[in-house]
């Protein structure tokens, strides 16, 4: 299976980058073709410009500035999001990716006033996330990233398929042991993806 891995952590020698490398390595070990998309390394521009917004609904005009990313998304049969959670949300670069690449004509289409998904070719979805917050604090805040992955993205891709959701909470108080245990968990889950 062709798997697109989206990564959004700017620090090369970080735990987030280690999780990304583990994700990619384990998927490859399992025999998947991996399209490793490190948004910072690729210098993805997350800003939805005035022009982008004006042509947002004009397919295929809306693809001109993000065509290569659109092609990568269209080629994917699996999607893995590997990112830290900052202030109970995705980093701006990842949010900008969704705003600029998941366009009308690409991820959805309006047909008779109803949204129809254009991402049914993606058969599997997973998320590998790190939170500074404890599980309770994330729950109390409504845990928007979890809802986006398990509800919004799942509904756009395939609402009846399960989602692999892996989260290391309380990174503010983590230990080498908790990080190693989660890294191993991610490796195992990606080998079974």
UniProtKB/TrEMBL annotation:
Q: Which residues form the Flavodoxin-like fold domain?
A: 1-139
Q: Which GO terms describe its cellular component?
A: cytosol
Highest taxon, organism lineage: Bacteria
Q: What InterPro entries does the entry give?
A: Flavodoxin_fold, Flavoprotein-like_sf, NAD(P)H_dehydrogenase_qn
GO molecular function, a single term? NAD(P)H dehydrogenase (quinone) activity
> What are the protein's UniProt keywords?
Oxidoreductase
> PANTHER family of this UniProt entry?
NAD P H OXIDOREDUCTASE-RELATED, NAD(P)H DEHYDROGENASE [QUINONE] 1 ISOFORM 1
The entry's family comment says: Belongs to the NAD(P)H dehydrogenase (quinone) family.
Q: What protein name applies here?
A: NAD(P)H-dependent oxidoreductase
């Amino acid at each position: 299976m062709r798997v697109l891995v989206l990564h959004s952590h700017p620090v090369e020698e970080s735990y987030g980058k280690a999780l990304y490398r583990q994700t990619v390595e384990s998927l490859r070990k399992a025999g998947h073709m991996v399209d490793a998309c490190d948004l910072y390394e690729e210098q993805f521009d997350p800003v939805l410009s005035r022009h982008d917004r004006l042509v947002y609904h004009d397919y295929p005009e809306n693809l001109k500035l993000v065509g290569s990313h659109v092609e990568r998304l269209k080629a994917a049969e699996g999607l893995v999001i590997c990112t830290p959670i900052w202030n109970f949300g995705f980093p701006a670069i990842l949010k900008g990716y969704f705003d600029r690449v998941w366009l009308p004509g690409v991820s959805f289409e309006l047909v008779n006033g109803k949204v129809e998904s254009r991402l049914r070719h993606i058969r599997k979805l997973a998320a590998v996330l790190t939170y500074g917050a404890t599980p309770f604090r994330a729950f109390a805040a409504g845990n928007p990233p979890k809802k986006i992955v398990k509800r919004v993205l799942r509904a756009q891709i395939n609402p009846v398929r399960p989602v692999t959701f892996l989260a290391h909470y309380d990174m503010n108080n983590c230990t080498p042991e908790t990080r190693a245990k989660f890294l191993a968990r991610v490796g195992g889950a990606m080998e079974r993806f």
